[in-house]
Amino acid sequence: MKITDLCHIILLNKDFLFYILLLDCGTFPTLDNGVYVLVNSSNTTYGAPASVQCNTGYNSSIDAITCTENGTWSTTQCLAVGECF
After folding, report:
1. Mean pLDDT confidence for 33-52
2. Around 57, how many Cα atoms within 13 Å sit in the side-chain half-sphere?
3. Would you say residue 8 lies in a domain?
4. Virtual CA dihedral for 66, 16, 70, 68, nearest 10 degrees?
5. CB-based contacts of 5: which residues, under 8 Å, 6+ apart?
6. What is the CA radius of gyration of the chain?
7. Minimal CA–CA distance to 76: which of 36, 46, 38?
8. Is 36 domain-assigned?
9. Nearest-angstrom CA–CA distance, 79 and 75
10. pTM over 0.85
């Protein structure tokens, strides 16, 4: 790819990229038997991670969720130890 091609791609997508960077997921969805905790306490925008902390006796299949390009948080469940995901 030539530099001019790359510049053209950036120009065509700059509004989309700007939109993505401004997406804010806001508050978390409810997590039964646990909580989500922001990794950076003031960042709820696109790509921001939040750790998953399940109550004692419960586990999650993932350690963190992220703010998605849809402006919503990815989700998980905290299931009782021994339950299948």
Report:
1. 94
2. 3
3. yes
4. -10
5. none
6. 17
7. 36
8. yes
9. 13
10. no
What pLDDT does residue 48 have? 95
Q: Is the pLDDT of residue 13 over 70?
A: no
The number of distinct structural domains making up the chain is 1
Structure tokens belonging to residue 59: 């586990």
Distance linking the first and last C-alpha atoms of the chain: 43
Q: Which domain does 35 fall in, by range?
A: 3-80
Q: Give the DSSP H or E segment for 6.
A: helix 3-22
Q: How many CB atoms lie within 10 A of CB 53?
A: 14
The conformation of residue 56, written as its DSSP 8-state character, comes to T
Residue corresponding to tokens 């419960």: 58
CATH of the domain at 70: 2.10.70.10
